[in-house]
Amino acid sequence: MRPFSYVSAPDVATAVHAISTEPNAKFLGGGTNLVDLMREHIERPDTIIDITRLPLTEIEELPGGGVRIGALVRNSRLAADLLIRTRYPLLSRAILTGASAQLRNMATVGGNLLQRTRCLYFYDGAAACNKREPGSGCDALGGFNRNHAILGASDSCIAVHPSDMCVALAALDAVVEVESVRGIRRIPLVEFHRLPGDAPHVETALATDELITAVELPASSVAANSRYRKVRDRASYAFALVSVAAALEVQDGTVTAVRLALGGVAAKPWRAHEAERVLLGAPATEESFRRAAAAELAPAVGLPQNTFKIELAQRAIVATLRQLLTDGSAA
Ligand code: SF4
Predict the structure, then answer these.
(1) Does Protein transport appear among the keywords (predicted)?
(2) Is there an atom of ligand 1 within 6 Å of 160 CB?
(3) What is the pTM of this model?
(4) pLDDT for 164-181, tens place per residue?
């Protein structure tokens, strides 16, 4: 690991001031991804700003029924929180499908938002990778691409975002609060992560001097009937081939509210707007679910090793909605 300077920040103002004066600095929260990346010389910060003592560890109910989650809340605590488990069960379930218990105990909400792709070539210093070294090429295009993107990819990068938690947040219309010396701004989760285009190394809307301070969830009655389904190569500690975060409300046999997002298919958590459009006001039937899934995946493009994900994603959407229909009827 390269030598670096270490600064411990006692409060948010000190943290954002420190990063404003040191362009090649990184915040250290749980460190579950950053430290690995530093060991592999992929991240090479000159300064580490330790933010683990900042007062960003609360889960608070907001007036109106939403919830504010501090950026340093550990993933395991968020998944276990009673408010989250009852009002947003898909978020709790998504987190519990990710990583291992030990990693969830360390990883923070803010860090989860910023975790980087698990593309094998990104971690291989001998491979061409536009995300790691802009302009160097992309060895995944002609290489092992079974886990890669089927939506929103480009000729520069076909990596997928690895988070489960963020897929649930995308379905829940979460908003990310960030702070810098210029002040506070709020970024909708669906606009926080970027598709690769011709600059895959720019992964988020976060400026280099901004700190994630919180994630807010709006009140949502539909979220009470929600699920997260993750399809992966083995039962635990594996990233999603495809995942579905969904919430469904049905009245008199008609879909009256629906939220749907996909993971494992794109460089960002993929909010399934087209499927939602097809479903809203439609009969809550298997046929409607299939039509919605087909509409969402219509623009998908398969690679030699991952075309199966197009069908898999559609089946996962239909199966999740079918389960929610059963759950909702039983409630
Ligand atoms: Fe790098 Fe993206 Fe290509 Fe993977 S898919 S090698 S992360 S440019």
Answers:
(1) no
(2) no
(3) 0.97
(4) 999 999 999 999 999 999
